Amino acid sequence: MLDRREFVKLVGAGGAVLALTECGVGNARPAAVPALPPFSVPLRIPPVARPDRQDATTDYYRVRMAETQAEVYPGLQTKVLTYNGQFPAATIVAKRGRRAVVTQYNGTSRPTAVHLHGAHLPRKDDGHPMDLVEAGQERVYEYPNTQPGATLWYHDHAHHTEAEQVYRGLAGLYVLDDEAEHDLGLPDGEYDVPLMLRDAQFDPAGQLVFVLAGFAGRQTLLVNGRPQPYFEVAARKYRFRLLNCSNDRTFRLRLSDNRPFQLIGSDSGLLPAPVTVTDFDLSPGERVEAVVDFAPYEIGAQVTLTNDLAEVESAKSVMRFDIARTAADHSRVPPTLRPLPDLGEATVERHILMRVNLGATISSLLDDKVYDPNRIDQRVKLGTTEIWTITNTDVQAGIPHNMHLHLEQFQVLDRDGKPVTGHETGLKDTVLVPAGGNVRIKVRFTDHPGLFVYHCHMLDHSALGMMGQMEIT
Questions:
Q1: Residue 41: inside a domain, yes or no?
Q2: Is 116 inside any structural domain?
Q3: In-domain check, residue 453
Q4: Got the DSSP string for 414-459?
Q5: Which CATH number fits the domain that encloses residue 201?
Q6: Are 404 and 456 in contact (CB under 8 A)?
Q7: Which of 200, 293, 301, 379 is the most interior residue, by most CB within 10 Å?
Q8: How far apart are CA 308 and CA 432, in angstroms?
Q9: Do residue 320 and residue 372 come from a single domain?
Q10: Total tally of structural domains belonging to the chain
Q11: CB 457 within 8 Å of CB 367
Q12: Ramachandran bin of 168, using left for φ above 0, alpha for ψ from -120 to 50, beta for the remaining angles
């Protein structure tokens, strides 16, 4: 936990309320970053990981976690933590119904734990924050891939260090390809593009600066590990898989000309039907799939993806799309995508409170408690459907939170008593809870007994204790 004296040093006199309002619990005096105008570097698409071997049912991968260097800013080498030397990590593309077995070797100096975020997995493969892979050791994770197709991601989850280790690079996409989607006609191949969004703070030498709860200093935006890049596109439809892998930053994304586009997917895959929007919010850990049609633009036109929640003007532009060529387009967005499953009638209701404690020791709390791996916070009966009401009581400080459940996806029933819209109409595993707000979710616990966690996915908050445990029996 942060000592209050340390906290005051971080935020400076009078800075606490500002930092809290900006969704952290601390601040750091921003270090100078290398001067680089926006849209100076091209977007880089993470490579697709190749299995080391395959058999009739399974793809086998070997991954080494280690500190290495990457060129984030042109001409500068930045120390980062990586999976197999890639920043960000290579995308694992798995097939629904075909197993993936990933052996993770820890070549870093600290313990790690690899969580496949959004996956429906047995306890032993979940990446629980206390199931550590010690330095110099390895762990085998088995992923059955039985759930419907979705954009998942894998990242470090070792408690107390997860915030720093994800920030320094231990994160990658895991796309679960589903044969049932192929007949829908959605954009695919080179027109199916991952976009990993995050923020960072760099010193003058181009090195990452990490301060726990140092949100306000992180004013450099990265997409796929590149600062505010440009991406040359064809005048046709694209499917973008957007992941917010920031520690604490929430984005409100729109195109600079306010042109509408279609949301087709959320955390757990396709929505019931496409939703036409001009903007949407994306909090840490959430994924959204969007189809943007560049056909109405002239060749040579440019349009920017902007963040309307930026605190400073220089951090408002996320990336730029340059319409560079024509291309045939036989893709479509059908009116029906994937119906919501019937989660059954709820027989249990729970109420979860989220807040930050600004006492002598700074901590983040669920139900007024800091995470304790020896404590069971919720006892859940396997096969039961429940409704959880999650309330953010940090009204005065103005601190947003979000909630991520391991193991299961859930339906968001309402937000502050009102029906949800946009990507929240699909199944979710992470949901934003603004200061003073509440959401109700409906979740059914199936298949896998054991001890799983639920927590704020603003990782600086979870590292400060905003996490609980549910035992499913």
A1: no
A2: no
A3: yes
A4: EETTB---GGGGS-BSEEEE-TT-EEEEEEE--S--EEEEEE-SSH
A5: 2.60.40.420
A6: yes
A7: 200
A8: 16
A9: no
A10: 2
A11: no
A12: alpha
Structure tokens at 23: 């969704």
pLDDT tens-digit map of 358-395: 877 889 999 999 999 999 999 999 999 999 999 999 99
As given in the structure block, the two tokens for residue 299 are 């060749």
DSSP 298-319: PTT-EEEEEETT-SSGGGSEEE
Which segments of the chain have a pLDDT < 70?
Answer: 1-34
Task: Tell me the residue range of the domain where 401 lies.
Answer: 348-472
Q: What residue type is assigned to position 155 of the chain?
A: H
Name beta bridge partners: 289: 241, 265
Question: 351 forms bridges with which residues in the sheet?
Answer: 389
- Amino acid making up residue 187: P
225 with 218: CB under 8 angstroms? Answer: no
- For residue 404, CA distances in Å to 138, 219, 290, 457, 471 come to 26, 25, 21, 6, 16
191-211 pLDDT, tens digit per residue, is: 999 999 999 999 999 999 999
Sort residue 367 into left (φ over 0), alpha (ψ -120 to 50) or beta. left
Structural domain contains residue 32? no
Nearest to 203 by CA among 28, 38, 9, 39: 28
State the chain's mean pLDDT as an integer.
93
Report the side by side order of strands in the sheet with 317-325: 230-234, 317-325, 302-307, 251-255, 279-282
Do 246 and 311 share a structural domain?
A: yes
What letter would DSSP give residue 180? G
Check: CB of residue 274 under 8 Å from CB of residue 288: no
Q: Where are the beta strands (DSSP E) in 333-437?
A: 348-358, 361-366, 378-380, 385-392, 401-405, 410-415, 430-433
